[in-house]
Amino acid sequence: MDLPNKVQIKEVGPRDGLQNERKFISTEAKVEWINQLSETGMNYIEITSFVHPKWIPALCDAVDVAAQIKRKKGVTYAALVPNSKGLEKALAANLDEISVFMSASETHNLKNINKSINNTFPVLEEVVKGALSAGKKVRGYVSTVFGCPYEGVVPLHSVKKVTNKLFEMGVYEVSLGDTIGVANPQQMETVLTELEKTFSVSSLALHLHDTRGMALANTLVGLTKGITVFDSAVGGLGGCPYAKGASGNIATEDLLHMLQEMKIDTGIDFDRLMNAAKYIEKIIDKPLPSRQLKL
């Protein structure tokens, strides 16, 4: 198999992993967990989201979390930002990188952002412009690339339109989300083959949810297509508040295990990562979906 020698895992557990938890995780526990993750060798952690607390109560302590974590040299600390107000807080917290997000499907975008796709573009453009002016890199997320809980199959032209618009704004990378975990390997091959006709594979990432146990299989297809950046969440935490039935992200430790067995370098220490996974499972006080945690 033609596979990359090295890939980057972007840890989204503290943000995407916790945003849907009903039990509020204390600021102290979040900070301790992020500090543990910083010591694993990973070089990218999305620590929180500067969304209004009314929409995501689980992350209402974003400012405090950003202020209290120990920042390790070589680690990028990022946060999700929905609008200019969120950007002000993120810049004040001196985050290294900003993420913006929207959906490829109209209905999910309305549920998630409360705006149509076309009306979302100006809002995100303002965020991207402001972040770039402040010297911050900006990453883009596109949700429901492989299927929408409201509309079903999402046309590829919609995915291309949103992805292209984000690149035009100035994002350096777009993470393609299988928000409800419906993608299959054949579909993954088809979508990536089509997208690489328009976009450089080196500027695309995959954000896969494991709702139906397909995330590792889809990851393998991504690897064969030249994708070298993958989002994941320790423990398999996560889910989308606006996508009924969406379960957790691909577990970072499951992804890491597969990559290590295939001799693909990530720079992450497996034992330290497992300690961080066990820590957050204990804090959340329920079994997490991670297969490695069940061994």
From TrEMBL:
Its EC number is 4.1.3.4. This is Hydroxymethylglutaryl-CoA lyase. NCBIfam families: PRK05692.1. Residues 7-274 form the Pyruvate carboxyltransferase domain. Belongs to the HMG-CoA lyase family. One of its GO terms (molecular function) is hydroxymethylglutaryl-CoA lyase activity. InterPro entries: Aldolase_TIM, HMGL, PYR_CT.
